[in-house]
Design goal:
alpha/beta; Rossmann fold; 2 domains; eight-stranded mixed β-sheet; five-stranded parallel β-sheet; 15 helices; 34% helix; 23% strand; elongated; binds cytidine-5'-triphosphate
């Protein structure tokens, strides 16, 4: 996701430097070329050798430690960077950035840079809540920097409160958003994800194997590209992506209600959820005893949410409807039938029986069908990549 991107990883001196050092490897794993710039105090917590080994690049920590290749190192590094990520950002570093100081290499690089800057504060909660720090954070935000909200909990200084370095998964979203083209900005997007579970009694349910990964990938990538995203999700084991509004549901009827209330306000509706077509006719209280149950469960049909959305949309251009056809094998005919029957703009056909893709897998192999008979066949790829290709199509449709 970050290949070809040059990231300057600015580290200042706090105990969270130990945690942040792990992010150097995470960024490199995502393909970024990482250059670590440490303040003098940061080197008291993590050695420059550790950061050099993790990044695979020489660490910059002082104005005067470069060879002739970088005659004006802070200007060169600042010009070449695609992004600056500062983690941990101490109260002192935040104050120096807010005042435009250039008294060490990191501050000078930030001052000279034109690329996006992401700041991840980590400090004692009283220091974070001090009006001086609050004003400094507000100043950085006003100037266009992204300042992550610190996590709350037990801190290294034994205090409890805000001040923990955020988790990498959240910061990764800021990084990817800062580097993504904002071609979905201004759009309100609703994505459904995961399975629905239909209760039989208070213990048992009918469900399916959907992991929710495709829908969560769609929500995360849309957010990065600037959309305002609501994720209507059945039960999954996944963390909702940072910056996405979560509407949790369990049953198809609950999903139906949540989606329908968003019909008017959504510009795009994506139905990646594996909605249960049926539910038990009655839900028993307590736990059905073996003797009571027999071998028959009577089922009743759930509403077809996408078909209802399609009907409501009629001939209007908005909202744009994207469906998923879960098929055993590559059944494009069935995908085309569903696209037309449910009045969708795009139908993404995926083979849920493939051993290397589909349900519960990290990857997917799909064909995107459109209203004009177009078929875009994508090779096996990660679900975030598939999601980006679907958003490319949506952006093109929106642009006319
Ligand atoms: N869908 C829906 N409500 C349902 C069933 C499906 O909104 N009750 C949506 C899915 O989220 C998906 C699309 O319809 O976007 C196609 O779902 P799929 O399960 O492939 O098809 P079905 O219409 O259920 O048909 P079948 O099970 O016969 O293949």
């Amino acid at each position: 996701m970050l290949s070809g991107k040059k990231v300057i990883f600015g580290m200042s001196g706090g105990i969270a430097a130990c945690k942040a050092a792990g992010w150097i490897r995470d960024l490199a794993r995502d393909g970024a070329e990482v250059h670590v710039v440490m303040t003098r105090n940061a080197a008291e917590f993590v050695t420059p050798l550790t950061c050099a080994a993790l990044s695979g690049n020489e660490v910059v920590s002082d104005f005067f430690d470069q060879g002739s290749a970088h005659l004006i190192p802070h200007v060169n590094l600042a010009c070449e960077a695609d992004l600056i990520l500062i983690a941990p950002a101490t109260a002192n570093t935040i104050a120096r950035l807010a005042h435009g100081l250039a008294d060490d290499m990191l501050a000078a690089i930030v001052l000279a840079a034109r690329c996006p800057v992401i700041v991840c504060p980590a400090m004692n909660s009283a220091m974070y809540e001090n009006p001086a720090t609050r004003e400094n954070v507000a100043t950085l935000r006003r100037r266009g920097m992204t300042v992550a909200d610190p996590g709350e909990g037990a801190l290294a200084c034994r205090a409890t409160g805000p001040g923990r370095l955020p988790e990498y998964a959240e910061v990764r979203e800021y990084v990817l958003a800062a580097l993504a083209e904002q071609d979905l900005s201004g759009l309100k997007v609703t994505v459904t994800a995961g399975p629905t579970l239909e209760p039989l009694d208070q213990v048992r349910y009918l469900g399916n194997r959907s992991s929710g990964r495709m829908g969560y990938a769609l929500a995360a990538t849309a957010r990065r590209r600037g959309a305002e995203v609501t994720l209507v999700s059945g039960p999954t084991r996944l963390e909702p992506p940072a910056g996405v509004e979560l509407a949790p549901v369990t049953t198809a009827l609950e999903m139906h209600r949540e989606v329908m209330t968003r019909f008017e306000s959504s510009d795009v509706l994506v139905k990646a959820a594996a909605v249960s077509d049926f539910r038990p006719e009655t839900v028993a209280s307590g736990k059905i005893k073996k003797a009571e149950c027999g071998l028959e469960i009577r089922l009743t049909a759930n509403p077809d949410i996408l078909a209802e959305l399609g009907e409501k949309k009629g001939n209007s251009a908005r909202p744009l409807l994207v469906g998923f056809a879960a098929e055993a094998g590559e059944n494009l005919e069935e995908g085309k039938r569903k696209l037309s029957r449910k009045n969708c703009d795009l139908m993404v056909v995926n083979d849920i029986t493939a051993s290397d893709a589909g349900f519960a897998s990290e990857n997917n192999r799909v064909v995107i069908l459109d209203r004009n008979g177009g078929e875009e066949r994508l090779p096996l790829m990660g679900k975030e990549e598939v999601a980006n290709r679907i958003w490319d199509r949506v952006a093109r449709l929106r642009g006319g």
